[in-house]
């Protein structure tokens, strides 16, 4: 199968790998592709957008988008492919009697001569997607995305009945897994591309990868396993223990106990707040809140509107830094809003992570109110060095970071007033 990207020309042809032929010829509005590493899914994503944007049946002023987990990832990985395959059809030289296309480097956007456009975005700034309409969207590496991006994308498809395809490699039972299960139930387009079945990677390479990696690593990265342990996860085993011990359940608010909060304050991104109660050896996570794009007065109101009696509010040490615009620190601003912050000790990230690990076995999570926070703790993981094929000794900065940082401040900033070894678990408060 050879697809011509440029009409009446052989200069720019695309020969899709066999594994992606069904993807390009699909007739379903929604679809999911679970693919192994190095399957060529990014190229296939970009080419699919181009093929549909240049179709004679495309709607007037059609808009197509490719969304990666982070904006820099979209720019570094996908943008060159977009330009490579669209430049020959743009008539940038301005030949007579031929419409021209446009390349916008600052917006990572290409407008084809027919008026259809293809633009790249990052899921790390979903607010940029609000107010748009879409004829088609690719969500690439969706397992690494903040699931709330779909809440923004979905309305953008409605008035033009746009389509969407989720693509990625598994990261445990997260939202990508949920979408994959839904796709199978609702008869969407579904493709599962395992490395041992696609024939894309040489057999010898697969044997070497299987030898070099752990079983879970190989199963996740090459065999598309959602059941394998999430590689590089800081709290994977501890959160799995919480699941097995039934400590992710319905946790009741005890009116006799103070509610303590811990915050990760975002400036241009999310602020995350955990709500917990302490009793003996138990840390009860009863609530979680996260949003972005609002001021401190918003969070003060959120706290006020909840029925809790508050104790300690733990915030990071940079809360003391004065703002350029006001000359006041966020510490002072929170005080003026009726919140008396406690500054967490300034420890290294590594020490903070270790503190969390030591406390997670005492934590109980409300499965409904803390759902997003629980998911973030499960997925919070180390950065991966693609060049050296090894994990770095630092966290990956993605949507899970704010939640994990907030939890870390709680672990180092709240000090129970009892000796842990003298107490036993009390579960009478569990619904």
Overview in brief:
With 431 residues, the protein is α/β, with parallel strands linked by helices. It has helices at residues 18-24, 41-53, 71-86, 149-156, 175-185, 195-198, 203-212, 215-221, 236-244, 296-305, 330-336, 349-359, 371-379, 401-413, and strands spanning 3-4, 13-14, 30-35, 63-68, 102-104, 109-111, 117-122, 136-140, 163-168, 189-193, 248-249, 259-264, 271-279, 282-291, 310-315, 341-343, 363-366, 382-385, 390-395. The chain folds into two domains: 3-221, Rossmann fold, CATH 3.40.50.300; 236-422, Nucleotidyltransferase, domain 5, CATH 3.30.420.280.
What is the third-level CATH name, the topology of the largest domain?
Rossmann fold
Radius of gyration: 25 Å
Q: Give the tally of β-strands.
A: 19
Q: Order of strands across the biggest sheet?
A: 5-6-7-4-8-9-3-10
CATH architecture descriptor of the largest domain? 3-Layer(aba) Sandwich
The CATH top-level class label of the largest domain: Alpha Beta
Between the first and last Cα atoms, what is the distance in angstroms? Answer: 58 Å
Helix coverage percent of residues?
25-40%
How many strands, what sense, and barrel or not for the largest sheet?
A: 8 strands, mixed
Structural class: alpha/beta
Beta-strand proportion: 15-25%
Shape: globular
Mean pLDDT level: 89
* Low confidence ranges: 6-10, 418-423
How many alpha or pi helices?
Answer: 14
The CATH homologous superfamily of the largest domain is termed P-loop containing nucleotide triphosphate hydrolases
Overall tally of domains: 2
